[in-house]
Amino acid sequence: MSTTREPVTIIGLGNLGRALAETFLANGHPTTVWNRSAVKAETLVAGGATAAGTVADAVAASELVVVALLDPAVAREVLAGAADAVRGRALVNLTSGGPQDARELTGWAAEHGAEYLHGAVYAVPQTIGTTESSINYSGSAAVHQRWQAQLEILGKATFVGTDAGRASGYDVAILAGMYGMLGGFLHAAAIARAAGISATELTPMLVSWLTDVFPALVTFAKEIDSGDYTTEESNLVMNQSGLATIITASTSHGIPASPLAPLKELIDQQVAAGHGAASFARAVESLRSGA
Ligand SMILES: NC(=O)c1ccc[n+]([C@@H]2O[C@H](COP(=O)([O-])OP(=O)(O)OC[C@H]3O[C@@H](n4cnc5c(N)ncnc54)[C@H](OP(=O)(O)O)[C@@H]3O)[C@@H](O)[C@H]2O)c1
User: Fold this and answer.
1) Residue 213 lies in a domain
2) Which residue has the CA at smallest separation from atom 7 of ligand 1?
3) Residue 138: which domain range?
4) Cβ 134 vs Cβ 158: under 8 Å
5) Which tens digits make up the pLDDT trace of 3-35?
6) Distance 63 CA to ligand 1 centre (A)
7) Full-model pTM
8) Which of 32, 101, 229, 265 has the greatest number of beta carbons closer than 10 A?
9) Is 202 in the same domain as 148?
10) Both 154 and 202 in a single domain?
11) Low-confidence residues of the chain: pLDDT under 70
């Protein structure tokens, strides 16, 4: 299999798209670019890229077409402008969106004779093309296999399944976990500040404690998947009491308990339903669809 120098097209030259184009150029790929605001192509053209006049021309230029646009609606709108050019193309869409967005674009691509692979990027533009970048892909296994070497140039390329929505499914779940943790961090910093402890003083101890807590997630995951929440470690009543203490401390300083209160509500529901002796992870049962 040839691993380099196939022509590639990048649609969208925002911060991510520019980094993608620069990385392909640096690796010797003839690179065609298109962006709504043509001015963003200028430095890339100076570096050897070809600027296409229309999105259809850009798509026509390469078998591998990588899309990095603002959001799914923009991606759909822009690709619609190349509907007659996408036949036979491998569309690799790195635009963030939900699972359903990826599935809809898969259907659209199939209707127009193209194959679709969705990518969820775990990198910032500055780390694209380095070992600090990784991208989860789902959708067309054929596209992933055919273009794996080229996709690996951008970052570690992991295929997570043939349902195009799967990479986004992982993505929104992982980001939900991340934002939950970041919300917890901000709450922790506010409570510490009210107690005369700076965020800089707090953070090393917090990071150390969170690092010790991380392995519990693996245990919780097994409990969630098996539905067996039997525990002799840390049950819901104990966590309910601990959260009540934190919320009282927070509000006594006049600090809203808004980051934690929804979690306590989930626990309260499970305890009220008679599951107080169950593991903390049982609170997820209050997050079932229609719960
Ligand atoms: N940046 C990151 O660190 C990062 C990391 C992971 C994932 N992502 C995802 O990658 C995607 C792109 O991110 P980015 O950072 O490159 O965003 P960005 O810098 O804001 O660029 C947005 C791109 O979308 C285009 N665009 C916006 N509205 C448009 C419209 N109505 N018609 C045509 N083009 C339109 C912009 O064109 P103009 O230049 O003409 O405005 C630009 O090319 C997003 O979905 C983002 O969530 C980004």
Assistant:
1) yes
2) 121
3) 8-162
4) yes
5) 458 999 999 999 999 999 999 999 999 999 999
6) 22
7) 0.90
8) 32
9) no
10) no
11) 1-4, 291
